[in-house]
Design goal:
five-stranded antiparallel sheet, three-stranded mixed sheet, 24% helix, DUF2141
Amino acid sequence: MSESTNRKSVLASTVRHPVTLVPMRARFVALLTVLVLAAFPAITFAQSSCPGIHVRILDIRNSTGAVACALFKTSEGFPTEFLQSATNIIMTKVQDTEARCDFVDIPPGTYSLAVIHDENMDGKLGTNGIGIPTEGYGFSNGASALMGAPSFEAARFPYEGGNLDLTISLGY
């Protein structure tokens, strides 16, 4: 190999393509920034949840056990026979004395909702010797249980499809 050819190959190896002059880390950071900014409108304006009935349960006295949310389409079995009569049932753990039940794919109609805080995880609302509840309970539409459970009609609410957000505070 001649000395002139050797110099050309040495010079060629020291000349770099302009893209390789930017360190790899800087290119990665730039690419990541572009991707995040491109997705930002989708992240910011995205729907918070799927269409359905979304229930936030408040005033849970502790984080033990689970919360059972029972959605009823008819008065049959409301609210005590939720395992046999409810259209949909969701059991969820209590976290930081709050819980959330999300009913999705629910057809439009009139519904009533019963919620219990099943602290001992036995699948039912605990009561004392004379039938007074010892675990938390609540109903849709602000229905109260003074001398027994409220009626389906007192707790009913219309659902027209889309998103419906409900908040139920438990009583003990």
